[in-house]
Write a structure and sequence with these properties.
single chain, 416 residues, mainly alpha, Growth Hormone, Chain: A, disordered N terminus, Sugar_transporter_CS, MFS_dom
Length: 416
């Protein structure tokens, strides 16, 4: 079935028909599995640089490599993960990937040199990308098309919660017991995820995934790595990821410079709370009113957050920036992911999701490099004000690559 046919089926739903359920046993299982995956990622990235410095007596910059090389491995793997998931099967890639992640998690306990640790981190990043792509593809296949945005927002909460729980638990374990107990705890988390993945049914797996062949030639190979239908909105999310990375990277330095450290300590609390609440509202609105009403409003709010940050003179303004960013970026991300998946047929969900996150990760990775040069020349405050203008301009980019499409102007669900 094509994406167009899928969309026609949903819009043809009679207004008297009950709305399909979002949650199912399988979706709940995959939600927990994805939470476990993200929990280990955020739990390790929080302490890995300090661990490398303490364990191997290296410089801070070298220790930072132990944290960032995971992302490098994951970004490279995104090029191949989606096609692999679509060809081999979502559930199979999920379980094999989890099994491999569990084996790699055990290697943290025996990595006795910095080169060994770097290899483990890079390999973990590669496996994380493939496994998380399979989990998200399984989830999308189980979310009703007419409630795609709402369901995507709910599923994305598995990552939102892990960003708060993972660092908190890892720091508590390290401070109380040391690094080895943390590695053992995360190994147990992987084992639990493996067991839960075995309970996920094969429902929704494309019947021909085992025999599907890549189209001949360079274009056929490229299509298994990057889906052309997702690239337009991927370009928009690359810009959004670059802008968001400026806050994550330079917030602490900026607030320390301005004497607003207390506000910075509450920034991500406000960010997480508003993001959590907005997921229960904006996804449903997107399904009923279309992509545009949600994305444009989130772009305006995100631009306002950057403008407020660039002019901040009190702690409350930093906290307010966190709340506005939680609504802005926290809404744009799942909204565009749902729009990207809606552009392809079900048997191409894997490559669509990997393309989306390849562009997002690319923006988050490149943003600090480019924006760091801008901050050196203009200062942090001016940089944030410039990025507020970039966000306003990004609305035009969104309109060009997606906003003018008919499906972006109308909802997927019929109001009952």
């Amino acid at each position: 079935m094509t994406a167009r046919a899928d969309a026609q089926d949903t819009t043809a739903t009679p207004s008297t028909a009950p709305r399909p359920r979002i949650w199912s046993r399988d979706l709940a299982l995959v939600w927990v599995v994805n939470f476990c995956l993200a929990l280990t990622f955020y739990g390790l990235v929080t302490v890995m640089a300090v661990y490398a410095v303490t364990r191997f007596a290296v410089s801070d910059s070298t220790g930072g490599l132990a944290a960032s090389i995971f992302v490098v491995g994951a970004t490279v793997a995104r090029l191949f993960a989606g096609g692999l998931v679509d060809r081999i099967g979502r559930r199979r890639v999920l379980w094999v990937g989890l099994l491999a992640c569990t084996a790699v998690a055990a290697l943290y306990l025996v990595a006795s040199s910095l080169p060994a640790l770097l290899v483990v981190r890079a390999l973990h990043g590669v496996l994380f990308a493939g496994t998380s792509t399979a989990a998200m593809t399984l989830a999308q296949a189980r979310i009703p098309a007419s409630r795609r945005s709402e369901g995507t927002g709910y599923f994305a909460l598995s990552i939102t919660l892990s960003t708060a729980v993972g660092p908190f638990l890892s720091l508590e374990i390290v401070e109380g017991s040391g690094y080895d107990p943390l590695f053992w705890a995360l190994l147990v988390v992987h084992v639990v995820a493996c067991g839960l993945a075995l309970l996920v049914s094969t429902k929704g797996e494309p019947a021909g995934h085992r025999t599907r062949r890549t189209r001949p030639g360079f274009r056929g190979v490229l299509r298994t790595m990057v889906h052309p239908a997702v690239l337009p909105i991927g370009l928009f999310i690359l810009v959004i990821g670059s802008v968001y990375s400026s806050i994550v990277t330079y917030l602490n330095s900026y607030t320390a410079q301005e004497g607003l450290e207390r506000g910075a300590s509450l920034f991500f609390v406000a960010y997480a709370l508003v993001m959590f609440v907005s997921r229960f509202v904006m996804g449903r609105l997107q399904d009923r009113r279309g992509d545009n009403v949600v994305v444009y409003s989130a772009v305006v709010v995100f631009a306002g957050a950057l403008a407020l940050l660039g002019t901040a003179s009190a702690d409350w303004m930093i906290v307010a920036t966190g709340a506005l960013t939680g609504f802005g970026f926290g809404t744009i991300n799942p909204a565009c992911q749902a729009a990207a998946v809606a552009r392809v047929s079900q048997d191409e969900f894997g490559v669509a999701i990997s393309t989306f996150f390849l562009m997002l990760d690319g923006g988050v990775g490149l943003g600090p490099v480019v924006l760091g040069l801008l901050a050196e020349r203009t200062g942090y405050a001016t940089m944030f004000l410039v990025l507020a203008a970039v966000m306003v301009a990004s609305a035009g980019l969104y309109a060009a690559v997606h906003g003018r499409r008919p499906e972006a102007r109308r909802g997927r669900a019929v109001v009952t």
